[in-house]
Amino acid sequence: MAFSRRRFGLLVTAPAIAAAVGSPAVAAPARTDVVGALRRAAAFLDERLSYRGGYVWSYLPDLSRTWGELEAARTMCWVQPPGTPSIGHSLLDAYHATGDGTFLRAAERTGLALVRAQLPVGGWDYVHDFAGTASLRRWYATIGANGWRLEEFRHHQGNATFDDGGTAAAAQLLLRLYLERRDHRFRTAVERALRFVLKAQFRGGAADGGWPQRFPHRPGAVDRTPWPDARPPWLPDDVGHGMEDGDYTGHVTFNDDVLGENIKFLLMCAATLGRRDLLEPVHRAMRCLHRLQQPGPQAGWGLQHLSRTAGGRPAGAPAGARSYEPRALTTHTTQTNVTQLFHYFRLTGDHSYLARVPAAIAWLDTCRLTDEQLGENPLLTGRTHPTFVELGTNRARFVHRFGSNVRNGAYYYDYDHRSTLSHYSAGRAVDTDALRATYDELMSLTPAQVADLKARSPLSGRPIPLPRYFSLRDLALTDLFRDAPQPLPTVTDAQVEALVADLGPKDHWLTPADAVTNPYRGAPPADPYDGTAYMSKHVGDPHDTSPYDPRTPPAEPPYAPTERPLVISTAAYVANAGKLLAWLSR
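Below the sequence we write its predicted structure tokens.
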């Protein structure tokens, strides 16, 4: 999808509310009415929408079509947020807010769906099919294989992934469910997940303490993407293309904050299960991120880093990944990793984690987008930095594509800032002033303040309860500290009234779909396409199964702008339920 899959809740808004100055005051809703509305919505999800307790991302109201990141079969559940774990966390949060066992029972059914979806190795893949492996392979060979921009779904890999926070979100939910009633079914699954996380962690060398994107390594994994013989005449001869460092799933992965999510899960288990043995893997992971910061003047990080020497390049060097992720430093990853270093200092009181933060910020200041780049590419509006910065030259690298589908098309990269991808932003919003302010704040802490942080840190080895709510906002490592504040979003009585009214007797919220997809049509044509209609669109020709906004389709027949269909969205449910829970908890 075009949006961040782990911050989906921020994109879902409550129904429009008449709240202009001078509007009549709205009477406060009755608590029993709000709890009753939540209960009805949860029952609808559990009894009507879920499949054996599992969820995808969105559903037509008659359930005739369903979607995760791609169109999904009815028998599937999506592990990536905002799928099955996200709903489970929301249901458990509702139980914590109300004490109503309806929510706990629904959350447990969702948890048991994840237990069934857990792979023998202990982790999860993006998606599970309750109809069996043969059904899942058919989906990969048809819908998955033809999602042009979703290369991770082109093949059924059969192993587990840390990507997109799916494994972390599932494991965290099962831990929470176990802690509720000490149900051995959840404890067994949590232990399997812990063994998976520990076994997948790299040992020794520059990669020590990091994690790959997928585990265990699968021989024969994809390590190259086709480069069509027939290419448009307008394509420059000197563009880069392909997977520069081969199979990227075994590299140390910072993309989607893999280290941060795994550290969070390990700390949760250490603090609630008495597993002090998990603290050393946490320390190793923190040291890995610290170690792999590149030397100045380009003191940043990439999406992935080599886990071992390859192609004459040392372990720890930035690596390329998918064909639209060239070998480069990445500005948004650097911002995320600097933020992680701030957390590591708070966890440990060790100033060495802050030592090279100024160098990272100084590098970010050297590679801002230019006025020309911003002025000539509307897709860069609101961005401050290029996504990819070339090693050595410090020049921005921009990614494009030609063709119309997985057979006749390909991605390439060069220095041209125009006509970039729409589905993978060429620019990022990086707030170096905020990073600098946080650095200054942490460096100004007194020894007594640092000692207080260390005493309340989950690395202290003392028991610390988990936060009460997981679905109202993204939890940071600092939310795991003893007595950490748990701020709730501000929700007005009028917003609550509108949400309850919009739920109505149908017991579910309808929201415009974020995207639609073309149905699978068989093998796409290999005939060359020399046009540019698909360069900056989310979808290619009608054989492409990638999601796209129907209001702004490619300017090629048979596409024509249409309105977004109304769907039952798991993201909308989590966001709307979160507003009601925040109101109930005020």
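The radius of gyration is 24 Å.
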